[in-house]
Design goal:
By secondary structure, this protein is an all-alpha fold. The chain is 78% helix and 0% strand.
Length: 176
Amino acid sequence: GVAVDALFAGAAVSVVALLALPRYQGLIRRRLPSRWHPIYARFEQGAVRSLRRLPLLAAYSALGWLVEGATLWMLGLSIGVSLPASAAMVAGLVASLLSVEPITPGGLGVTEPGIVLVLTSIGVAAAGASTVALLNRLVNYLSLALAGVVVFCLRSTRNTRAPMLAQGPSRSLNWT
């Protein structure tokens, strides 16, 4: 609808403005107070350099949407909900878009209705669509929590060994 059109229009205008920064650098600097020149230079350098990563960012985003859609599709299969892969991909895209600017942590309570809306609009029963959305939330939260525990444990182990290594072998094994 209108919100999606506005989002894409805003993104397009932002990309065009970023691409134009180097071309209009002189004009921009003449208009800015001199005390802002160093700040603008850092902004321009960071913004223009970030555009070089745009293809990689697009690839990662597409991969994330595909994983989200595949997760929804497999969850539907696991509970016997007939869910076309294309509908799962669209629902995954909607879920990803709804979590871009989360009002709640991780988009909790915001993405689920979007998933249910997409799935019910293609004919999935409300109970099945709701179950898929809730299972998706559970899988997402549990996988992130598990990854967080692993990272925490790895960092904790590395941080506890670091002081002993810094002391050297003769001090860390003081037997007297």
